[in-house]
Design brief:
This protein folds into three domains: 86 residues, Arc Repressor Mutant, subunit A; 104 residues, D-Maltodextrin-Binding Protein, domain 2; 94 residues, 3-Layer(aba) Sandwich (D-Maltodextrin-Binding Protein, domain 2), CATH 3.40.190. Helix 1 packs across helix 2 and helix 1 crosses helix 4. It is built from nine helices and 14 strands. The protein is α/β, with parallel strands linked by helices. 43% of the residues lie in helices and 25% in strands. It has a five-stranded mixed sheet with strand order 4-3-5-14-6, with helices on one face. A five-stranded mixed sheet has the order 11-8-12-7-13. A two-stranded antiparallel ribbon has the order 1-2. The model has no long low-confidence stretch (mean pLDDT 90). The radius of gyration is 31 Å and the shape is elongated.
Length: 299
């Protein structure tokens, strides 16, 4: 038996002034209660209880010890009950929207670990690279990688910035040449990220200079992993988050293009319907997701 249970046993004996009465309350045998209290006394090096044939009473040391530990045990019991009540409130379902590439790389581990801590919360994930209207489609929250929020009908929570870079395959650059300045991109095949068959606009900057380039080319795709595979195949230059291309860069399948030029900051952000206060299930998942990202994910 652990020390905490031994202390609870001692306090019950002191409250009942009887080993047998305490045993009944604790669903233990009187002998087990006696052994537990004796072991606690031996551990502390003091006698806590006076035993007589009629009753059990506290020694002065026992009374002082009980006065110190009883509030702690009661506080721990309250915390336990509050945590159990919290678990009841977090039980239920969540609908979460997330982008395809991020979802495939991060969310399986997030869900696996989250389910261990919150087994009564079910999570339905929809992976999509289209812009999801969380109000119209009844999502509890959406995970997005985007620029500054513009949707004033939702609330948001920034998690961390996501770095991006221009990449191409060595074979593409060997055939077409390596661009030295952003203007060189206008003569090269660019792979555009867009969900409506439109051309993506790339804003590139370095101290004292800003350039805007239309990412013109044959392909416009609304999925980062797809663009990454096209770039590896030598089909053009793509602007992608580092977490999508990091392995390919290390393997030499892709190389960075125009490394001295930066792109506007984008963020991993959680979006919510306009709650007056986040439902506990939503807040719990959000806190867990943010902690996981900041501790475990290198973007």
């Amino acid at each position: 038996m652990g020390e905490l249970e031994a202390i609870r046993t001692f306090l019950t004996v002191a409250d009942q002034s009887s080993f047998s009465a305490a045993a009944r309350l604790l669903a233990m045998t009187p002998a087990s209660v006696t052994r537990t209290v004796s072991a606690l006394e031996e551990q502390l090096g003091v006698q806590l209880l006076l035993r007589t044939t009629r009753k059990v009473s506290l020694t002065s040391a026992g009374a002082a010890y009980a006065a110190r530990v009883a509030p702690l045990v009661e506080g721990l019991a309250r915390a336990t009950e509050e945590t159990r009540d919290l678990q009841k409130v977090t039980a239920g379902s969540l609908r979460v929207s997330a982008p395809m590439s991020l979802g495939m790389k991060v969310l399986p581990t997030v869900l696996s670990q989250f389910s261990i801590m919150h087994p009564r919360t079910s999570v339905a994930i929809e992976l999509s690279d289209r812009f999801v209207d969380i109000l119209q489609e009844n999502y509890d929250l959406a995970i997005r990688i985007s620029g500054p929020p513009t949707d004033k009908s939702t609330i948001w929570r920034k998690i961390r910035p996501v770095s991006r870079l221009l990449v191409a395959s060595p074979s593409f650059l060997a055939r077409h040449g390596t661009p030295k300045v952003p203007e060189d991109l206008t003569t090269l095949e660019c792979l555009s990220y867009h969900d409506q068959s439109k051309t993506e606009t790339w804003e590139l900057s370095r101290p004292g200079q800003v350039r805007t380039v239309e990412a013109r080319g044959r392909f416009s795709i609304n999925n980062g992993d797809f663009l990454c595979k096209l770039a590896i195949a030598g089909e053009g230059i793509a602007l992608l988050p580092r977490f999508i291309v990091d392995e390919e860069l290390r393997a030499g399948k892709l190389v960075e293009v125009l490394p001295g030029w930066n792109t506007p900051e984008i963020w991993l952000t959680l979006y919510y319907p306009p709650y007056e206060q986040l439902p506990l299930r939503v807040a719990t998942f959000s806190d867990f997701f943010e902690a996981f990202i900041k501790e475990s994910w290198d973007a």
